[in-house]
Each structure stands twice: as structure tokens, then as C-alpha cells.
């Protein structure tokens, strides 16, 4: 296999938001998406609308679940595209953040990526063409108030991306991260609700607060992130390796 056509493409968190947009986009390139997440019903409903897609239950924090899920994904051939998109976020002042909240975010956002990537490492290393795309965040590129745990996890994910890109550079696989600003998904919806609750502002003002982080003054659409993933999956993008690509409207600070 020399490109995404007929490639088995696992997308964690593929039933919603950014992951779902990526699954649709990769299917349009001829890939066979495997949507993973904890909510099987939601995954099956999403997969039903995507050509050649399958839904497989997977909790990325549970090593047994990851093993079982990736064995199912590999049943129709090696996994040569892996989009590590599953992620969680919350916000707390640092001095009120407890150990559980800290560890939960690292477990999904960093260790989860380690588990999923290791589960298909042999496939990726052996392939003539393969891609790993880690959905990080602008929070992996700079700091932000009240999200120390999330920032640490996404900085860690970018570190893992760069290390693996170096380790596998002589193989057919590239490893890159995409770093979106605020994207219009359930995760951003939670942030909007939190701002409304904590500041008493109305919905428009809360959205404006998030949009302010983007020089283009808007929330990003999931399809824009999916387009970056599609570009990374093109065979012609093989020189792009170990990068953390911002999809954020040009934020520099
Ligand atoms: P979302 O709709 O909330 O998606 C998160 C996905 O992760 C869900 O599909 C969820 O599926 C899955 N997930 C969570 N915990 C999981 C677990 N333990 N095992 C397996 N799957 C799990 O939000 P989104 O915005 O599309 O987020 C996707 C990625 O983009 C995340 O990594 C996030 O950090 C990143 N991101 C988002 C934004 C933004 O503003 N939205 C900005 C930058 C980066 P289940 O509930 O079915 O498990």
C-alpha cells in the first residue's frame, strides 16, 4: 500500500467532533475508517453514514480494551493510518487541581496515545506507507491559565510525536501533531458553559471570549482540522515529519 486508498485508518474518538470529521475526510480519500471510543452506540451511528467504516469500542485508558480493539481493527489488514484524537479537557485553578484530575487528563491524552500507537507499532514500522497523526492543541505550544494539566498533556504529546518521528524516520511512516485552537465541538461547548457559569456572561460573550484567542476572531470548524489531517495523509507529504502544525488562525503569542 502506497497511500490512503484501502488503508485501514483507526481514529480514536472518531464518533464525535474533530475525529468524526477526520473519519469522513479519510473515507473520501479511499481509506477504511475504524472509529474507536467508549460509546459504541454513538460510534455505530456515526459509522453507518461513512463508506467502509466500522465502529469498535475502545477505552484508551484500559490496556486490555486497547489490545482487544486493535486486534479487531487489524482483522481486515494492518493499520497503516492512526489518528490519535481521543482527548479530554477540564479547567481548574492550579492550586485547586487534585491528583485525580491531573492523572485522568494525562491518562487519556498522553498514555492513551502511547497505548494505541504501541498496539500497531509493528504494522506502522513494517509499512511502505503509514501515517500517525496526533491531535494535540495550541495548548501544546504555549501555556494557558487554569489548564496546567491539559497543557502538560499536550506538550507531552508533541514531545512523543517528535521522538517517534526521529525513531522511525528511516521507515515509511511519518508522525506529526496537529495543534488546533478552539474548534466548534462538544469540548468547546463545555468551555463555553464553564465561562458562562463562572463569569455570569451570556453565551455570545462566552463564545467571543474563546474566539478572541484566534486572530481571525472565530471558532474553527472540525472540517478545517480534517483537511490538515488529509494533507498529512497524502503520499506527497512524506517529508513532513515530527511537526506540530498549528491550525489556529495565526495565533503567535
Ligand atoms: P469531543 O467531541 O469531546 O471528542 C473527544 C473524543 O474523545 C470523544 O469522541 C470521546 O469518545 C473520546 N474519548 C474521550 N475519552 C476517551 C477514552 N478514555 N477512550 C476512548 N475515547 C475517548 O471533542 P473534540 O474537540 O472533537 O476533541 C478531539 C481532540 O481534539 C481532543 O484530543 C482535544 O484535546 C483536541 N482539541 C480540541 C479542541 C477544541 O477546541 N475542540 C482544540 C484543540 C484540541 P467517547 O466518549 O465515546 O469515549
From TrEMBL:
Superkingdom is Bacteria
Q: Which GO terms describe its biological process?
A: monocarboxylic acid metabolic process
- Matches recorded under SUPFAM superfamilies: NAD(P)-binding Rossmann-fold domains (SSF51735)
Gene3D superfamilies assigned to the protein according to its UniProt record, in alphabetical order: NAD(P)-binding Rossmann-like Domain
Residue ranges of coiled coil: none
* Record-annotated Ketoreductase domain positions: 7-171
What's this protein's name?
3-hydroxyacyl-CoA dehydrogenase
**Species, as recorded:** Marinicauda salina
Amino acid at each position: 500500500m502506497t497511500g490512503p486508498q484501502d488503508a485501514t485508518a483507526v481514529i480514536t474518538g472518531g464518533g464525535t467532533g474533530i475525529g468524526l470529521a477526520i473519519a469522513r475526510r479519510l473515507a473520501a480519500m479511499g481509506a477504511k475508517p475504524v472509529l474507536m471510543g467508549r460509546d459504541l452506540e454513538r460510534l455505530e451511528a456515526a459509522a453507518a453514514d461513512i463508506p467502509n467504516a466500522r465502529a469498535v469500542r475502545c477505552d484508551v485508558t484500559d490496556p486490555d480494551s486497547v489490545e482487544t480493539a486493535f486486534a479487531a481493527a487489524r482483522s481486515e489488514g494492518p493499520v497503516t493510518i492512526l489518528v490519535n484524537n481521543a482527548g479530554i479537557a477540564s479547567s481548574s485553578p492550579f492550586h485547586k487541581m487534585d491528583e485525580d484530575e491531573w492523572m485522568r487528563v494525562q491518562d487519556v491524552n498522553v498514555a492513551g496515545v502511547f497505548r494505541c500507537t504501541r498496539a500497531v507499532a509493528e504494522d506502522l514500522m513494517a509499512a511502505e506507507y503509514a501515517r500517525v497523526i496526533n491531535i494535540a492543541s495550541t495548548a501544546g505550544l504555549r501555556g494557558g491559565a487554569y489548564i496546567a494539566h491539559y497543557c502538560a498533556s499536550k506538550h507531552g504529546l508533541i514531545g512523543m510525536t517528535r521522538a517517534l518521528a526521529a525513531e522511525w524516520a528511516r521507515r515509511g511512516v511519518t508522525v506529526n501533531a496537529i495543534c488546533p485552537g478552539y474548534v466548534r465541538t462538544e469540548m468547546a461547548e463545555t468551555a463555553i458553559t464553564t465561562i458562562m457559569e463562572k463569569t455570569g456572561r451570556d453565551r455570545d460573550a462566552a463564545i467571543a471570549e474563546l474566539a478572541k484567542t484566534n486572530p481571525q476572531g472565530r471558532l474553527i470548524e472540525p472540517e478545517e482540522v480534517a483537511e490538515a489531517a488529509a494533507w498529512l495523509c497524502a503520499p506527497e507529504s512524506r517529508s513532513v515529519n515530527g511537526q506540530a502544525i498549528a491550525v489556529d488562525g495565526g495565533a503567535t503569542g
